[in-house]
Amino acid sequence: MNLFNRSHKQHSAKRKKASFLPGTAVDIQAALAQSPGKAREHMEDAASSMIFQQGACGQERRTGLFVIADGMGGHLNGELASCLAVKVLNERMTPLLQEEQDYPVNQIEEQLTAAFEAAQQEILTQVSGGGTTLTAALVINKKLYFAHVGDSRLYWLDCQGKPEVLTRDHSLVQRLVDLGQISKADAEVHPQKNVLYRALGQTDGFKVDLGYREMEAPGYLLICSDGLWSMVEEKKLVSEVCADRPLSERAHTMVEMANQAGGPDNISVILVEIS
What we know:
By secondary structure, this protein is of the alpha+beta class. The protein has helices at 75-98, 105-126, 172-178, 184-188, 226-229, 234-241, 247-260, and strands at residues 4-5, 28-35, 45-54, 61-72, 131-132, 134-140, 143-149, 153-157, 164-165, 195-196, 209-214, 219-224, 267-274. The longest helix has 24 residues, at 75-98.
């Protein structure tokens, strides 16, 4: 099994519980924020946020594609791998987002898988020794599709309760937690917490995790690299996501929170509001 070691590299506004009105299109807004962190000079993360709208007069179709990749393998290799992964994914998925027809869930999942596999082949061919995580969220009106490899994360928050982590970290320590061999607290200080058993650029065991859900009520998607979630407590992230401030300000504040906590890694955040 190939492994990547990644160590080289308040106000809260209360919202009423609401549901989407039948037959209406959702509104999608997003903000992206990044920082190399305090300990690194170079940015090995790559991120992309795109929103499209088709139709008018009650026939609107709003879509969005939000992607984060966290590169590994040293400055040059990590940067090339993450940028290449995001580029390939966008090229493969953007045409689907710009069409006005709806596709079955299995067909969209097949296209996401094919896009991830194409990114994997490009990295293996062009970036020897490099690798990257890749997490993508695809919103088509009230439907959410997501695909994931690595330990970047996708959260769903409705500001009513505990946030839901929609992805699972492909790290050795998460596997040990799943097996009951160590606690979550132990995982946070484990010497191998930066080692991944699955990432783009690996030759063995490559597999894409897929997910789908129909969103019944407004809420937020938070896509982020481990430079954020490993440095900022979950309750503080929730408080900032749900704060009564402009979306871009909230995204940049979360990045600053990670830097204030030490900022040992690159930090990437995409905050998406669906209403």
